[in-house]
Specification:
The protein is mostly helical. The chain is built from 8 helices and 5 strands, in the order ααββααββαααβα. α4 runs parallel beside α6 (about 140-165) and α6 (about 140-165) packs antiparallel against α8 (about 200-215).
Length: about 240
């Protein structure tokens, strides 16, 4: 009487049954250094192009952006000096001393001075964001920080320059110079120091919007595998 015949293992289980290694599926070698594009020279994308300029280069570009944006604060200061409304003052002599007061106590010229600076700063912020985005579409955190810092420095420079170009700061000496009862302009000043942030605010908002609408996007992964990427039976088929 003979023993029952034992069938051999299926073909797809033969290698593991004999103790040998199971060959990887077709295309498995793509999951490695070559798949993510890592090369000895630095990170690369799937097209073989370098993925980003590197942190050091981004920091250098951010430093140049800060200087370039801040320099335009001089132009903002000149425009503020030219376009801001003048605040009329009048000098008078009382009890042997000079007194300076507003000619129109209900006027809104002082508010107009702050408003002019704010509108100009918003325009400069939007323009600087557009220029930076067109020159450097990839963006990055250092570039965004540079826009904010450069806008603040530009506003400070504009404020200082406008005050220097405007009427004299010593209103008593100015009143004595023009004479008693003669109207003269008050020095330029910002009543609300918060307007110094208008440039940075506009630049960050506009740059964020441009990056979200027109910035580069990563390619979406293909949900369907390429032909021959997976072996027969990978999804339970035969």
């Amino acid at each position: 009487m003979t023993a029952p015949w034992t069938p051999p293992p299926p073909p797809n289980e033969r290698s593991s049954y004999q103790g040998g290694p199971v060959p990887p599926p077709v295309g498995a070698h793509a999951v490695g250094a070559d798949a993510v594009g890592i090369a000895p020279g630095g990170p690369y994308d799937h097209h073989g192009e370098q993925d980003g300029p590197g942190m050091l280069k981004e920091v250098r570009q951010a430093a140049v952006t800060v200087v370039a944006v801040a320099v335009f604060g001089a132009l903002l200061g000149v425009l503020w000096w030219k376009l801001a409304p003048s605040v009329p003052l009048v000098g008078d002599v009382a009890d042997g001393g000079w007194v300076v007061y507003l000619k129109d106590s209900e006027g809104e010229q002082a508010i107009g001075v702050d408003g002019t600076f704010t509108l100009l700063a918003l325009a400069f912020g939007a323009l600087s964001a557009v220029v930076v985005f067109l020159l450097r579409r990839r963006g990055g955190v250092p570039l965004v920080v540079a826009l904010g810092v450069g806008g603040l420095l530009g506003s400070l420079l504009a404020w200082w320059l406008g005050v220097q170009l405007g009427p004299a700061q010593d209103v008593i000496a100015h009143a004595k110079e023009v004479g008693e009862g003669v109207t003269f302009s008050a020095p330029l000043k910002l009543g609300a120091k918060g307007v110094l942030l208008a440039w940075s605010f506009a630049a960050l908002v506009v740059h964020l919007g441009l990056t979200g609408l027109f910035g580069p996007r990563d390619p979406e992964p293909d949900p369907w595998p390429a032909p021959g990427q997976y072996p027969p039976g990978a999804y339970g088929g035969k």
